[in-house]
């Protein structure tokens, strides 16, 4: 039988108010079919039976989230996020530590609406193999090149052991909070939760996830996400 964590709390950092996609609102509120990107993301997290709560870290000037039907979901908790992704995750972890100190945190990007319940389950189940925590990831398939500062190819990188980091990323909440806080205080370059754990000497596991778990960062990604979700 799997060693099931006592409770699992999903964290969605969504404090960004700027948009990189030329729109008049943050990208997580752009429409993807009949509802916003963030709404799709939250619906999937709400639907997973092992996720006890979903914490969304919002910008204090966010005027969009309250308009979503998902904002009234009984599993949802709102906290005020920070200027960077890591700050928002830490704010949510502070809440988790105060209310569920033994919980595991499942941190997921707001702009990854195509994640499947099956992939989330596989990540949660990996706790037996990776008790230190793990992330969803996809093996690199393309040929990788390293360049110099002028844009010239220096060499071809061996892709054999390279992975694209995805989300969710799944760690014991109290340990992630401690390492993330220390890494930020040391001004370490933290790009995701796994990098904070790595900085502290922890080696997170890699759980192979679906390649259609894309992050919407470009206008073309919206059409691709609609296609992926229709096929799912």
UniProtKB/TrEMBL annotation:
It catalyses: 2-C-methyl-D-erythritol 4-phosphate + CTP + H(+) = 4-CDP-2-C-methyl-D-erythritol + diphosphate. It comes from the Bacteria. The keyword Coiled coil does not apply. It holds the Pfam family IspD. One of its GO terms (molecular function) is 2-C-methyl-D-erythritol 4-phosphate cytidylyltransferase activity. The record marks 159, 215 as: Positions MEP for the nucleophilic attack. The record marks 20, 27 as: Transition state stabilizer. Its EC number is 2.7.7.60. Keywords: Isoprene biosynthesis, Nucleotidyltransferase, Transferase. Catalyzes the formation of 4-diphosphocytidyl-2-C-methyl-D-erythritol from CTP and 2-C-methyl-D-erythritol 4-phosphate (MEP). Belongs to the IspD/TarI cytidylyltransferase family. IspD subfamily. HAMAP family: IspD. This is 2-C-methyl-D-erythritol 4-phosphate cytidylyltransferase. It comes from Shewanella vesiculosa. The lineage of its organism: Bacteria, Pseudomonadati, Pseudomonadota, Gammaproteobacteria, Alteromonadales. The gene is ispD.
């Amino acid at each position: 039988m799997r060693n099931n964590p006592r409770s699992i709390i999903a964290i969605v950092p969504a404090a960004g108010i700027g948009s990189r996609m030329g729109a008049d609102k943050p990208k997580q509120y752009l429409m993807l079919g009949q509802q916003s990107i963030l709404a799709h993301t939250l619906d999937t997290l709400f639907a997973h039976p092992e996720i006890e709560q979903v914490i969304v870290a919002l910008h204090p000037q966010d005027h969009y989230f309250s308009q979503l039907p998902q904002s009234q979901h009984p599993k949802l908790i709102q906290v005020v996020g920070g200027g960077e992704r890591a700050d928002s995750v830490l704010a949510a972890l502070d809440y988790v530590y105060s209310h569920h100190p033994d919980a595991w945190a499942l941190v997921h990007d707001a702009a990854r609406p195509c994640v499947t319940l099956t992939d989330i389950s596989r990540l949660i189940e990996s706790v037996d193999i990776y008790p230190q925590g793990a992330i969803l990831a996809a093996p690199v398939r393309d040929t990788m090149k390293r360049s110099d500062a002028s844009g010239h190819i220096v060499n071809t990188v061996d892709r054999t052991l390279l992975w694209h980091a995805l989300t969710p990323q799944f760690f014991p909440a109290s340990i992630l909070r401690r390492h993330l806080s220390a890494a930020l205080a040391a001004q370490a370059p933290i790009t995701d939760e796994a990098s904070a754990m790595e900085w502290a000497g922890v080696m997170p596991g890699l759980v192979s996830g679906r390649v259609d778990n894309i992050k919407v960062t470009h206008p073309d990604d919206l059409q691709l996400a609609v296609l992926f979700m229709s096929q799912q």
